[in-house]
Fold these 4 entries.
Entry 1:
Amino acid sequence: MTTLTVKDRAGRLREEPPRGGRPRGRWKEILTGWAFVLPAVALFLVMGLYTIGSGFALSFAKWNGFTPEWLWVGIQNYKDLLYADPSLAPEMRRAAWNTLQVMIAVPALTVAIALPLAVTLNSIRRLRSLLRSVYFLPYVTSGIAVYYAWRYVLEPEGSVNLLLRALGLGSLSQPQGFLGNPSTALPTLILILVWSSVPVATLLYLSGLQAIDPNMIEAAQIDGAAPRHVLRRIIWPLLRPITAAIVLLGVRDALHGFQIFLIMTGGGPGGHTDVLGLMTYRLSFFKGLAQTLGVASALGWLLFAAALLLTLVNARMLRRIR
Amino acid sequence: MSRSRAARIAAYVALAVYAAISVYPFLWMVSGAFKSRTEILQGGHLIPQHPTLDTLVDTWSRLNFVQYFGNSLIVTGSTVIGVLVVYSLASYAFAVLNFPGRKVLFWFFVSLLFVPGITVLLPVVILEKELGVLGTHLGLVLPFINGTAPLTVLLLTNSYSSIPREMREAARADGAGEPRIFWSIYLPLARPAHITIAVLTAVPTWNEYVLTRVSISDASLYTLPLGLESLISSEVPRYNEVMAASLILVLPVIALFLFLQRYFVNGLVGAIKG
């Protein structure tokens, strides 16, 4: 999706604005152009280019952040992460496995909830805009405060356990709390991630549904098509580009985002909710004097490579769908 | 008729159930914020039996949340202003001016979209330590501004490009220079795009926790997320205070959303579809 976007824009840029005639006017135009972009470029050179470059260099060195010298080690950091280091490699594999589960489960469940929700919401008239605002709330407030609120309701004596017992589903309640039990912690976090990504997905589906010609659906209904057939044969194929965009966003978030894991479990219990982003963060900032900064950088760049690869694959699939 | 009516009722029931799921943690946040220390330990009731304002008042003043709130306003406000100034200028140049390097630069900014925040987080911290801005509000604002570059440049360049070129030519014929055209034609006409950028920047900045956590160590510079975290890192978190602090953090965002909902929605659909 993103690559397509970028190409569209670049195409638009290619139509050159009319030139400024005389040579003197031309120079003035060049200087004006550069004056306008100067602040952005200056900030980018310092905060963007320099940090990207030094971070990439650091991934080939060992350093603890305090000694004056970096120790160059070539691609050893990458090897250590992928297979060579007996303590790092298994940790990385487990974090990668958890990340993969998040990457598959969150987009799939988001689509499974958001599409029916949008279709239902689109079929009613009264209360539609009120409900839309209510559904949007989890996205707007997503962040530390809401994660703490979830922690509160998921406590051993929290309201989710009480609710389950009150509904006669006491067997589903978790006496140690949903985040304390190794087998429920990751699924719980996945459900919260779905909860916070459903709003944007629903919004996108709604805008897609409103672009579908109602006559088409009416014609199918007159021909006797059942609602679920209309959904499967007409609505689902037309909304496929939106589905692809939602999946792409979900995959990117799974690779880039780790905030919820940091705030709600810190990777625990016992590493059961550790993900690659969180592992990078830990190696970067919580290893004291150990020389882990190079490995942390290397892991960051592996994440970058994975994200880029998945974006390209997705963009190609998207083009085929279209 | 009765069948379609039943279907409609079923639709409303399903929508109501999901609405309840959407607001579930907020209901308990509000409930917890109005409970006293003893009542929160008993748990149970969503509606507090002895609702009290003491917890909120206490969190606001004794626990210093008034100060954290001010710090959050400073950081978020400076970031939004910085983003609007720096990238409206740059996007204007990308959209309408003609100078060598224009396309390359535009590509550079947009390609930053592919670099995950976590990949550059460590180098940013190392660099800021060397520059001596680590641990200050400026040290937060600079990377926050730079981080919004890809999306902001995309949205603003697009919006400026859609303004008819004839207006610019007419102003030039009247003798107006570029700064003047930018200021009195493009800025006012692209106002909706600027508001969209402002809200899409303000909300994540207000909530930002990851870089702030590793940068700021001086408690007098804490923003709301750090203040909130400091409440929960004590041995037994007092959830009534945690929920009161959470409420203080989300209320401004909800208010912003309710007033500027249209810009949120347009911005998101535009950013993803664009």
Note: Residues 1-12 of chain A have pLDDT under 50 and may be disordered.
Entry 2:
Amino acid sequence: MNATPARNDVQLGMPRLPAPDYPADVRARLEADAKEVIARYPGSRSALLPLLHLVQAEEGHITRTGIRFCAEMLDLTTAEVTAVSTFYSMYRRTPSGDYQVGVCTNTLCAVMGGDAIFEDLKHHLGIGNGETTEDGAITLEHIECNAACDFAPVVMVNWEFFDNQTPRSARQLVDDLRAGRTVEPTRGAPLCTFKETARMLAGFPDRRPGAVEATGGAGPASLIGLRLAKGEVAPGHADHVVSPRTTADGPPDEAGPSPAASPDGGVPPRRDDAAGPADEEGK
Amino acid sequence: MTVAAEFGGPSRPQAGGANSPEKVLAPVLSAFWDEPESWTLQTYLRHEGYEGMRKALAMAPDDVIAYVKDSGLRGRGGAGFPTGMKWQFIPQGDGKPHYLVVNADESEPGTCKDIPLLFANPHSLIEGIVIACHAIRSHHAFIYLRGEVVPVLRRLHEAVREAYAAGFLGKDILGSGLDLDVIVHAGAGAYICGEETALLDSLEGRRGQPRLRPPFPAVAGLYACPTVVNNVESIASVPAILNKGKDWFRSMGSEKSPGFTLYSLSGHVANPGQYEAPLGVTLRQLLDISGGMRPGHRLKFWTPGGSSTPMFTEEHLDVPLDYEGVGAAGSMLGTKALQCFDETTCVVRAVTRWTEFYAHESCGKCTPCREGTYWLVQLLRDIEAGKGRMDDLDKIDDIADNINGKSFCALGDGAASPIFSSLKYFREEYEQHITGKGCPFDPAKSTLWAGTDAHLGVNA
């Protein structure tokens, strides 16, 4: 399921020459970083995933040069490194945009509107799953469950949370990104580029002032239970119907607050292609 | 569609009543998430942070293990294995390094508890790690965080830095003689790495594929050394147990499922979110205090603990949500991810999408799972699109049966669960897709913004 056939680079006959190395100054800088990462682990090979994030931070995707670098640093073959890099979906195999826009289309988000958002964005940007806009700003992808179901539908940009999205808000989001306007997630720090994000994933903390503090302690949905337990009513909520009953006896229903979801709408496109976001294969 | 008569009146829970939020809920881990800087060490210390660690470090390691075992804490990652017993399995005096690996690869569809917990209160995990490492005599702990949650990665980096600076990590912690290093390790996108042995392979820099067991990680885990793999919430629950006592912990929940836990309500409910409560609360109670389903709609099906746990329906609203209660009703407590879908949702669409997920995430090691999930997707897509045949229903049931229990890990079992349970409760709906040659549902009605007129005029 994980193998994706190589595209146009099938070669017969002579094996390919080894990948070129990084320029000397880049190599020296990356080597220093790599050694710092490797030193954290009791076994050096454990540093492979972080090192792949590191070379992705350099070039925006995993290149043959990056694979060669990881192999040399860890005393592995390039085949071993390639086998690992192709297993994980966060490693890109082709050049792509500064902003990775991922729309969750796993069941819950899909049903809550993720399918409509994804279809709408494909149409709005004129690109398909995994493709990049011509200006190199945005790579659009559908993603799997990102552990934010209580904020559905969820869109991730460079792996920061954009909660409770609608087609309209998602369109605004990508328009802002393409126009170079500042975009702030609902949970997470002001956006940096995909390469800068990859460096954090390699294990180098975000040093930007205010990045850790950004958007506060917890999102509103995370706090609802706590607020109710404290006798508060969740903000902006009004009374309304309660859950259905299946038994005739038992205590009378009690109602709590309800959300004023303030949806801003946007027309969900028809789902004319039932397969939708799932027709692409592989990771 | 709506069945207004089925819904109660617009009453409000009585303060102090048996079903009031104050009685039903029990915030412990989430108790101060609403503070302005809840994630900082300073805030954590104001709320008795690292007190449990002080108590644990004053105890002998074996006594800590016995204490956690006596508390009855069970794993919060899905399987519910007693945490103290897992620690006890680590051989002592074997001369090998021991490791603690925290599974923060939260990826099970519907599951969304560890990520908000780590975002709002990462120090509860760090403190739990120190206690656990003292107990199992480990000097190295790893937090394997899924890579796709950078805001949480940021907070974990910061929490670990703060803990080192305060002397809660590093050499000779608080003069106890315990040396401990904690490494935050970001994954790279693979659901299978939430399976503990696949996680270990991934942490060793390999493709994340499950290992054959035995040997279990307690004997041969990371680098073939004794290793405890625990879920985030399990470890984060330990400090409160040490600080407030096992009897306090046992005062919540039941004999076999004691304590508090995070329930994650999502989907077509009025107020999706995190609800921390004693184990054994029912979905009806949670819906009652939280405003029920979204206005004018009723519950159709729900999962008790993520997509891998067989689905429930309205008839299960009163099932106690603890390990025994959910098990007796034919499902699993799992991760307490209560995904609620109302009558506008097509169950065939839901199951098809989950199945596509399992097919995508199958690591490919075991044939039944790799091939079975692929063929399930083909058949389900046809059924959803109205191109299925009646005997396809027996066929998907048969394929699911050929996956279930026949692979190295539980991913295949998880893929079979929605098939079995949806056929059990909603076979008629599958048949409708076949006889009606299409899906009778309108997906627009299920969306967050359904029923509002805000969308009018924007269909440019």
Note: The longest helix of chain B spans residues 411-435.
Entry 3:
Amino acid sequence: MRRLLPILTVLAAIVAVWYAAAVWMNATWVFDQAERNGQVVTWAEVIPQTMAQDRPLLPPPHQVAATLWKGVAGQAVTSKRSLVYHSFITFRGTMMGFGLGILFGVGLAISIVRFRVMEMSVMPWAIISQTVPIVALAPMILAVSFQLGIESREVPKAIISAYLSFFPVLVSMVKGLRSPDAAQLDLLRTYSASDPQTFWKLRLPASLPYFFASLKVAIAAALVGTIVGELPTGAIEGLGARMLIGSQFGEPLIMWASLVAAALLAGVLIVAVGLVERAANRRMGVRA
Amino acid sequence: MNTTAPVIEAKGLNLVFQTADGPVQALKDVDLAINRGEFVSFIGPSGCGKTTFLRCIAALEHPTGGSLTVNGMTPDEARRRRAYGYVFQAAGLYPWRTIAGNVRLPLEIMGFDRAEQEARVERVLDLVDLKGFGKKFPWQLSGGMQQRASIARALAFDADILLMDEPFGALDEIVRDRLNEELLKLWARTGKTIGFVTHSIPEAVYLSTKIVVMSPRPGRITDIIDSPLPKERPLDIRDSRAFIEVAHRVREGLRAGHSYD
């Protein structure tokens, strides 16, 4: 309860602001309608009408919740209208991109720490890569992978997702692998430890706290990357495609429901990473 | 092996560090012979080269002149033959390993088999009075116990020489007294040759059979004192006349080093 209370307070504040904004934004349409019909409406009449429009400028929370519920519980999970189905597609893409990003980030970090020339040649490019807007890059990655004859949309999506998620892993792992101090390295030298032994016995375990800290950022980035990868035209599956369809066909409720679904998915993923981190910490003897 | 030859022998040892501010003479013309089973303390103010000399013995630094042998070999060779265990000022235990896991670290690296590792870990933990603490993590132990674990780690692979760089410098005096007493017992039981760097005159006099007084700029030896104290040393020996006389001579040596510049 202690931990829940602050979260619920913020949630309540968001919902309140959301309702206020919904009334304010959707009222314009009600007033326009009334003026066209030569009627005068009072605020008492306007407010209920802002709560139940078919195409509201800003759907109020309960409408979004209803659409979300319909998308989750109202369909078979295999249906193309099911948000569970689309969430799963996005989840699968996120995990692929996340895995790829971890592999790439850790691998690059190891070679950068091991070879000075890698640091001087690769690190600047890794940083530059993150300054290019992913929305601009995503369609190109898609186009190029189609040109290369890759039929599946999963591959370019995973690449776009990995493109965003490898960077926090890389930066943290470089720092983590370098975290052992001179005394700790000297200790291993007195045992005549080899480079691989120094890596496995000292550098790698010392870097794990940095690794887990970066995973929380990386998984969120992987999700964003996946959704962006689903946005470009042609996508029919995934939460990103669902958002695009909602916006293109003037169905704000679908768009908002997908958005909330994406936020929920992000929350679940971050909690899952947190649980893995806690389990790992316990195994590594970190003070509870 | 010839038992009368010195275990560690330095002749005309020099070490010059190249720094941004120009060369710094860390060690100048150091001559010293340490025999098997001796307990040698190095004492002197900061920058006198006592730690640097210890690191040269351990092949963590490489002298720029003169000769240095450990068991008749170069320090690098001696290290490869596991001639010494090194204890640093900070216990430096890996927080992700248990106490037993930390003591096992050098054994894993040196490729002892599983059963041998367990047997040795048990034996050295017993030796430093940490029996039953093997499964604890370092943060669950006091500073003094952590340092004992790090001594156990240095003893685990049976090196003849134990090099200790201010191992008790960060501990309070009461803990330090007790650990000094235990270290003497350990030394008597194992017969190891010990090189011990310290800032503390009473600690050096209480522990050592030989005290090497050093002074800075350039780092050099100003006095070598062979202690007249008996091998058996209860804590109250520090009130004896002989003890006070040795401590006085050390203090004189340190003062002489200071008036040099």
Note: The longest strand of chain B covers residues 22-34.
Entry 4:
Amino acid sequence: MKTEQYDAIVVGAGHNGLATGCYLAKSGLKVLIVERNDYIGGAAVSRELYSGWTYSNCSYVCSLLRPEVVRDLDLARHGLQVIPYESGATFMSNGDHFAYYSDHDALRREIARHSKKDVDAYDRYSKFVTKQCRFIKPLLLRTPPDPVRFRPRDIQELLYLGKRFHDLGARDMADTLRFYTMSVGEFLDEFFESEVIKAHLAGSGIIGTGLGVYSPGTAYVLLHHYMGEVDGSIGAWGFTRGGMGGVSKALGKAFEASGGTIKAGSALDRFLIKNGKVEGVVLENGDTYTANTVVSNMDVRRTFLNHVEDGELPGDFVKAVKRFKIRGSSGKINIALDGAPTFNNIPGTANFLRGDLHASESLDELERAYDAWKEGRWSEDPYFDMLIPTHVDPTMTPPGKHMMTLFIQYAPYELANGESWDGPNRDAFADTVIDKIARYSPDFKDLILHKEVRTPWDIEREVGLTEGNIFQGELTFDQLLFNRPVPGYADYRSPIRGLYLCGSSAHPGGGVMAAPGANAAREVLSDLGRKGFGRAA
Amino acid sequence: MTGHRPNLKDGLPVRRGLVETPFDRHLRPFSLAEDWMPWAGFVSARRFETVEAEYFAIRNQATLFDISPMHKYAITGRDALAVVNRLVTRNAAKLGDNRVGYTVWCDEDGSVIDDGTLFRFSETEFQLCCQEPQYSWLHDIAWGFDVTIEDQSDTIAGLALQGPTSFAVLKEAGFDGVENLKPFGIMDVASGLKISRTGFTGDLGYELWVEASKADELWDRLWPAGQNYGLRPIGGEALDMARIEAGFIAARVDFQPIHDAQRPSRGRTPFELGLDWLVDFEKGHFNGRRALLEAQRRGPRTLLVGLEIEGHKPARDAFVYHGKKKEAGHVTSALWSPTCKRNLALAELRAPYGVSVKDDLWVEIYHPKEGKWEKVMAQAKIAERPFFKNKRRSATPPGLF
């Protein structure tokens, strides 16, 4: 057992914890990051589980990572490289497909193949969504105001928010309010008539969410997936060279270059709290580290319900944390492939095969997939987001071989009848997905060399995300802005003095964004009366 | 000195109009964009698909850029070294055999005529590779020496194979020995085919120089080998992005070649281009030496510098100011660098700016915003070049990606 003293301790080396650590260390603080796993990255990791094949085990594509953070922390110099991918597609059971070209004119022609009317509708849709992105983007790296406290900074932020909202113009203000609360299904129905086009676009509205395409609040989830960018191209997504672990690796290097210390394989037992003030952390192995500032990268539930004793927290806070929605809804499969799979009626050179691929062709089908979730089953006809990053990234497999990453929805955390996910159910879940892909790719099954199947249970156990919820809490309007994670505590602080949240449970939510991490660091530095640095401080 | 005229040995009969390079028939099918441009009388691709995808292929995979239109001159004969050393500002005697050196050459006033790469195969065998035509200038320089100058621009074709998997592609194609080739080295790999470890991207990369008649053979060997390494053809636009990141200057963009300038004031010395290291006063007489000695004593009138600019709007064609008020120069090349994640530029500053006054620099950037021009005054800092640095560029043996 040892005891060491630091200026600040971050619990969890997820990308947000690392980002917070970087900013704090850069300001001159002596910072320690403790991480339960033997590797850093949380849900942004690249691991070789089959010799020669590297997987992006959890998160798999990059867009939301704030460019301000990348620049502040000089992540490019520390090896981060994000390569945008082109296009995407939805395969259809009649042998046709819908290709979502990134080239605007090519896309218009493709849409016309499915519906002439939807061609211009797409432009209208796209303009609306981009407008919403412009509205929300500047809010990502700001601490939300508390509308009931009326401190000068709350009033200032409310005015800022009000002004931006007002700048949308009268018509869009009304539409914006509707948009934030409506379902992605209704939203798309207002624009499009083609089922496959709606289904292709709707995926972004349900990913990571325990809601269906017709559940209110899912339209915002779609926006959440659009508001990122790659080099200024709004809504673009890219592959991180070497897998998503590349993000964490670069952050880790930046952190260590600023003098920070990472201790992996160091699981937290509890926060040290005295008289409502945090004093450090105690690890499971008994080691104690003291600091007056402790920042938790864990989700809000885990942080306060598992590692803080009940008596230390106000009752209404505990109640609010307990009702915070953080429901498991998805699974993940990573597959090592012996070659590039071919898809029915599509030439291997088609550029959209380098993008995100799907096989859900109507909103009805997606809604039925959600029915299974409600009943405690995985969807028998699941939605998936399927990518083969090795069409672009030469570093993850031997030449000519490929790696496929699959995000699958829906997979509930609790199976009906209290059944276990471990064992036959995990295999059966994987078979459901693989059989569905094989309907569109005749050679797919024969190419499988190895697979990593991750149920909500696996994600919770390995990454520490409650219920395996990828966003550390759902992105519905009741859990956004000043309500994230709970009302009164959207400023990264907690009822315990010196204890902060920096994970995706905090504003602006999930995705490999590093915004909560950067924002939390700014609040910590402000409490310490330290001048930060650069723009984000 | 023998006093007789250099032997003239011309190439093929002159073809008329804009012509195809020897690789054209292989490249053309890849052109989905149909976006071509003229380059030294040849048809050259500006892009094949999207500039973005081609740019990222340079920094992530492997790319082929057809450099056949480059001007290539063979300088051979007993006095080849003497002629070359009279031409260029650096000392070609210090360049080893089978080595390549970047160089510039000047007129009598010390103004740069062009820059390019000098290939030294031996003391009697050189090749000069450059952007601007130099045939008659080379003859002027060679007057009185025992050399032959041959314009090989039409007879030698070239492919730049650049990117992190470029070595893997060569290996797959069976070019043995390439693993030992160091940066700026040249090797003969087959009859009529040379590979040099050079390029314009600042990344791992090679240039393949082949007799035009053997271009098909080379293509057929290279292209299939690249299939599992992400090999794709690229156009000049993507390459230009990589060359700015690499900090390389381009003739007529970052400096005005003096033979192409009406106004003598547009001439720039190597010092003014930040190329002091290329000038060797100890090697004996060379063209422009006296003027350059004087220029060195006087100090640069202007200086080409690298800038890192705040924000993300590329500072193309922007003016540079000191203290936001006093005009200090202008940007010559600029881009948002997707790899460095920095807003970069090359700029020509007027002394003392960039020379003794290096702070408080601002760039006035104009950019269109939905039908309205907006103006930003963005702070700029002088930054070291190359902007993009990666160990894989010089690792020997090189990595596979």
Note: The mean pLDDT of chain B is 95.
